[in-house]
Input
Amino acid sequence: MTSICAYCDRPNPDQKLYPPREWVEHLQTERGVAALEGVLAVPLCGECHDRLALLRDAFRERASLDADSGEPTRDRIETVLATLTIDALVDETGPEPDDVQSVL
Output
């Protein structure tokens, strides 16, 4: 894992978040993230992991929202993705057994 949280730049992140495919595609087209050999992991401190996990859950529920109701969630997601430290992102083959709880 990298030495900083990809969201707040705090040292020694202890968790990872595996973003939805749409987020990865956005990062690749809008932020220049290279093609991946494995899966994208976002190293995060505990506080940032909780925030981004909630946003990921809202993203998954967006299909049940009308266009106007989903717009604030889309805006928050775009803001978060624009804020991530690209150099902190990790291309990995999948979660290690110790990281399984972070995926949930």
About this structure: The first helix runs from residue 21 to 31. Confidence is low (pLDDT under 50) at residues 97-104. The chain has one domain: 15-103. The chain is about 45% helix and 10% strand.
